[in-house]
Design a protein that fits this description.
Shape: globular
Largest sheet: 8 strands, mixed
Number of helices: 6
Bound molecules: 5-O-phosphono-beta-D-ribofuranosylamine
Radius of gyration: 17 Å
Number of strands: 11
Oligomer: single chain
Strand content: 15-25%
Helix content: 25-40%
Strand order of the largest sheet: 3-2-1-4-5-6-7-11
């Protein structure tokens, strides 16, 4: 038994994670409906992907707003009118203000290319290589007002091998990301993963103590 999740997907760029979610819905492995793709960058390739699949799109260009607060307010009212169950950040490159996060508390998901809580922020692959790490990974977490800081729901790691470049790590990470987001969303739609209104998280009827390890 599953419910159809209403999703708002926020992007800024290529949208390959958006594509993976679209593909899972079209393949019938994810019971969800993309109510809107919201994008802050009018040139994002992800907008072409959305158009190809006939999805509603809202472009809210942050450069059209005098300050972050006004942009956040516009984003918030757009998303409130969409009434999504979840807001899915998929390569969305703007930091959300605390007013926005509070308005949709426990209902915003983000995918981050690192094993959180390590390597918050940008350029995670380059920093992991520079530090001589032997593994890196991907995390999906709930968004709080602190950057890349909310509870981690799902995590996958991969080895870093001698001679690896940033692009090698990015490719390994993307491979996992494209499987992880559809998987996590389908667990939510099946009530296998439950995120309560007060932020309590249960997976397979037990309180989540640590991130679920993703197995491909
Ligand atoms: C992904 O690597 C994700 O981890 C990060 O931004 C990237 C987005 O890629 N947050 P895409 O736009 O989905 O291709």
């Amino acid at each position: 038994m599953s419910r159809t999740l209403r999703l708002a997907i926020l992007i800024s760029g290529s949208g390959s994670n958006l594509q993976a979610i679209i593909d899972a819905i079209e393949a019938g492995t994810l019971n969800a409906q993309i109510e809107c793709v919201v994008c802050n960058n009018p040139k994002a390739y992800g907008l072409q992907r959305a158009a190809r699949h006939g999805l509603p799109v809202e472009v809210i260009d942050h450069r059209d707003y005098a300050n972050r607060q006004q942009y956040d307010d516009a984003l918030r009212s757009t998303i409130q009118s969409i009434e999504p169950d979840y807001i899915v950040l998929a390569g969305y490159m703007r930091i959300l203000g605390s007013k926005f996060v509070t308005a949709f508390e426990h209902r915003i998901l983000n995918i981050h290319p690192a094993l959180l809580p390590d390597y918050k922020g940008l350029d995670t692959h380059a920093r992991a290589l520079a530090n001589g790490e032997t593994e890196h990974g991907v995390s999906i977490h709930l968004v709080t007002a602190e950057l890349d800081d909310g509870p981690v729901l799902l995590q996958a790691s991969y080895p870093i091998e001698a001679g690896d470049k940033v692009s090698d790590l990015q490719a390994r990470g993307h491979y996992l990301e494209h499987r992880m987001y559809p998987q996590l969303l389908s667990w939510i739609s099946e009530n296998k993963l439950i995120i309560d209104n007060d932020g309590q998280i249960h997976y397979e009827q037990a309180q989540l103590q640590e991130p679920i390890r993703f197995v491909d």
